Structures are given as C-alpha cells and as structure tokens.
Automatic annotation (TrEMBL):
Organism: Phlebotomus papatasi (Sandfly)
UniProt KW Ribosomal protein keyword: no
Membrane topology designation: Multi-pass membrane protein
Family stated for the protein in its record: Belongs to the amiloride-sensitive sodium channel (TC 1.A.6) family.
The protein's name: Uncharacterized protein
Sections of the chain in a coiled coil: none
Location in the cell: Membrane
The entry's keywords: Ion channel, Ion transport, Membrane, Sodium, Sodium channel, Sodium transport, Transmembrane, Transmembrane helix, Transport
Main location: membrane
GO CC annotation: plasma membrane
Keyword DNA-binding among UniProt keywords: no
GO molecular function, one term: ligand-gated sodium channel activity
Length: 257
C-alpha cells in the first residue's frame, strides 16, 4: 500500500492520504479519516472512491498463482472470477454468481474421493469458504474464513453435508416455511444486488437497505443495485455510516427479522 501511495501521490504527500486510501480501499463500516476530511475540508476527500479502490486493491494475477485441483494445474484467474460483495471485489471459484457461472467446476464424489485445491498466495489474503449459491457477507461464520499471511502455509480441511428439500415444500407459502428458494425474490424489494437468491445475498441486501434507511446511500464497495440507481456515499455519507455503525447493524437485524 505504501509503495502505491508513493507512486500515485509522491513522497512529499500529506501522510493523511495514506490513512484515507486505506479507509476507502478496505472500508469496513468505520472511517477514521472521514472526520478529518470534513473538519478540514481536504481536497483529497472529493475524488472518485471507486477509482481509488481500483488502483489500490490487488488484481487476481498479482494475488494468487500456481493453482492446482487434485494435482492438475490450471490457470488461477481463468477459474477464480471477479465477484462483487459488500467487502468489494473478491475472486471466487465454483460460484453461480460469476460471469460466466462457476468459472471452473470443482467436483468430487465417492468415486473420485476427497478433492484437493492448492493455491500459492502472492500477498496476504482472506479466504471465505462458501457454497456455489452463497457470497461472503457480514455474518460469515468465523470457522468459514481464514486470514493467511504471506509466507505462511495453511491447510484447511472441511466436509459438506448436502440437504434436499421435499418437493411439497414448494407448495407452502414463504411465511409458513420461513425461507425462499433461489428464484424467489421479493417483488416489493427496491434493491436487487444479485441475480440468484440465497441466505447470504439476502443478508447483504438487508445491510444495503439499512444503510439507505439511515444515511440515504450505500458505501462504494457494495454491489450495484440492478433495479434502479442507488446513491453511492460521498465522504459525508461514509461519515454517517461510521457514526451509525452500531445503529445500522441493529436496523439490519430488525429488517432481517
């Protein structure tokens, strides 16, 4: 990050710029530099936040390499495809939400035995384990995410248990079964961030709705609304989200419940 700041802004830059870039590129709901931006009316805070993210977030080819599935090498970035999440752009494999879908299907069964995926990380990375219908989201269980620092080796072992719904469940009202199938978007929703419904995409949408309710905008890392234009937060909006972080989390819970 420091090297890129040096390239884009020079060695004589205001060191506040480094804090601002970090808050924008990896916005997590809190923005410590936003208050200084507003109090001192700094010009650095008036730029295009999405452009800042594009410059400072690591691209796939600079993030992972030497990928292999069951000992067979494959091109990492032909298989790990971009996916917009509330954390910004991630790279995921075997997902229905990417374009094209899945990228590369990783299949294992009783005949093939356990699958083995190998990745060499070129930077510190955070890994989320999720189903093909799910996306990384604010409530991802801690045992389904790992932070791997550069130079360290990590082995993650897991198994999946498939659940199948009875066909008669389709005939029950959503209010009765208290869940939706992947094609069942709410017609009343004004926000649609993903084309396929899942629990995690629902939670992400609830977070976006809570942000709009409190601050009339969503932060710049949030996936684009497919139904209509949604206000993207300026520095004032990010300050609002930061000040209301606990409140919008509570409001999100109310919307969800």
């Amino acid at each position: 990050m420091w090297d890129l700041n040096e390239i884009y802004f020079g060695s004589d830059r205001d060191k506040f710029q480094d804090d601002l870039v970090n808050d924008l590129a990896f916005f997590n709901g809190l923005c410590s530099s936003c208050k200084i931006c507003i109090q001192q009316n700094k010009s650095e805070c008036r730029g295009n936040f999405s452009e800042t993210v594009e410059k400072f977030r690591t691209k796939c080819e600079d993030l992972i390499t030497n990928c292999a599935w069951n000992g067979q090498n494959f091109s990492c970035c032909d298989a790990f495809l971009p996916l917009k999440t509330e954390f910004g752009q991630c790279y995921t494999i075997n997902s229905i939400h990417t374009n094209p879908q899945y990228g590369m299907k990783l299949i294992n069964n009783r005949q093939s035995g356990p699958g083995s995926l190998y990745i060499f990380a070129l930077e510190d990375i955070q890994i989320h384990l999720h189903s093909s219908y799910a996306v990384p989201y604010i409530n991802t269980e801690h045992d389904l995410q790992e932070t791997i620092l550069w130079g360290l080796q990590k082995e993650i072992l897991f198994k999946t248990v498939e659940l199948f719904n009875d066909e008669n469940l389709h005939q029950q009202k959503i209010s009765q079964r208290r869940c939706r199938f992947s094609s069942e978007f709410s017609k009343s929703n004004k926000i649609k961030l993903f084309d396929v419904y899942s629990y995690s995409t629902c939670i992400t949408t609830c977070v976006a709705e809570a942000q709009i309710e409190l601050c009339n905008c969503t932060h710049h890392l949030m996936p684009e609304n497919k139904l209509n234009n949604t206000n993207i937060c300026t520095i004032d909006g990010l300050m609002c989200l930061s000040e209301n972080f606990g409140n919008y989390f509570e409001l999100f819970l109310i919307i969800y419940i």
